[in-house]
Amino acid sequence: MKKAEFPEHFSGNGPSVRLILLLARIWAPARPAWKGTHMATAECRAEWRAQRRASQISYPGRVDGLDRLDQFDLGRHGDRHEREFWPLLSGRFPSYEILWRRLIVPLTLRIDPNITASPERWIRLRPGIPERYEKASMAHYSVFYFLGRAVKRFAEEKTALDYPEDVLFLLDSVGDNFQRFLLVMNKLGGDCGQKIFDASIDQFPKGFDPFREISDYRDTFLHNTVIGRGVGVDKTFIPRWNPDKGLSPLERAKRSWSAAEQLQPADQVTTSDLLERLIEDVCRTLESSWQQALAAATRQPFQQKMLKATGLEDYLPLEIPAASLEWVQPAGFSGLGSNTTFVVPPASGEYSAKRSEPGDNE
To answer: CA 67, 81, 171 angle in degrees (round to 5)?
Structure first.
């Protein structure tokens, strides 16, 4: 708050004057304790001003213009998979994009003023990014990738409903990478004295609904003979899950096809209802955890540690290159359009290095 100012000729000692002076003391910025001197010296005032500037720079969301990262849009500036899946997930998992802007984008060449020379590389991590931050980027991206694939597969309706294991496998991969994200974010938080997630993450998937249910379904479909399932008019039924294995229809159905056929209607669920519920529950759990991570990543200690550890301070004050914001990766570009792919130089006499990947022209 702005320090109160009084005219030089102001004087007096009445109650109103004492009240104003008291308020001025409350409103004035905190000043350091000085040994054996007063704030009257120019040296003391200069040091106080320097401390004030430092505190303002380290204030969350105001670290020398980090709010400028909000100019990035996942639908335009993400890699090709992020741009493909964002329309499917933006309404269910909005905090992914916000944390992507504040934590992931600063790790990449998107903030490098020299990006205009090679815009196809802008989605890549900057050289020298510490492994812990790279692992956070990988887990963050992988959760989104597998979730996007699961939602897209479910949207294909008929095929997904006849073969629910396809979606269940993808959702289980979401859970695997979600656990990695929780662990690495806690390590990054620990580096600056913060605890982002509590000890319950060590019991994953317990306490993180619906990932225990997804894991049990995935194991049943993957590690057993093809499980019996019911069919109706445009519907496929599979056994319901229960956390108590002794009461779980899914456990009974694993024994034999005849055991699955003897299940009561109440012990079965349509693949449509099951997959839709699981996807909604997964998105709800992820959104909640991403909000926790975002709250930590925008606090002063986390930002200050990130500035030094990742070399981000060398780019301050941030001046986002116009090419980064205006350039949109064209369809049909090479494999560099994805965070996870890279060009392998052709052997002598082989096809040119310029190539397209499946899905690039979609």
So the answer is: 100
Positions in the chain short of pLDDT 50: 1-13, 15-62, 332-335, 352-362
Indicate the residue type of 216. Answer: D
Q: Among 337, 329, 282, which residue's Cα sits nearest to residue 73?
A: 329
d(CA 148, CA 105): 20
Distances (CA, A) of 175 to 20, 139, 165, 232: 58, 10, 15, 31
Angstrom distance (rounded) from CA 85 to CA 105 = 18
The token pair at 8 is 């030089």
Kindly report, residue by residue over 253-297, the tens digit of the pLDDT: 999 999 999 999 999 999 999 999 999 999 999 999 999 999 999
Residue with tokens 């930002």: 303
Exposed / middle / buried, residue 155 (Cβ in 10 Å: 0-12, 13-18, 19+):
exposed
With beta carbons less than 8 A apart as the criterion, state whether 338 and 80 touch. Answer: yes
Both tokens of 314, joined, read 């060398």
CA-CA distance, 207 to 342, in Å (whole number)?
Answer: 37
ω into residue 205 within 30 of 0, thus cis? yes
What is the number of other CB atoms lying within 10 angstroms of the CB of residue 91? 8
CA distance 66 to 106: 9
Q: Measuring CA to CA, how many Å separate 111 from each of 61, 106, 318? A: 17, 6, 7
Residue corresponding to tokens 């039924």: 237
CA distance 214 to 220: 10
Give the alpha-carbon dihedral of 85, 91, 97, 99, to 10 degrees.
Answer: -130
Residues across the chain = 362
Residues 251-282: b if buried by 16+ CB within 10 A, e if exposed: bbbbeeeeebeebeeebbbbbbebbeebbebb
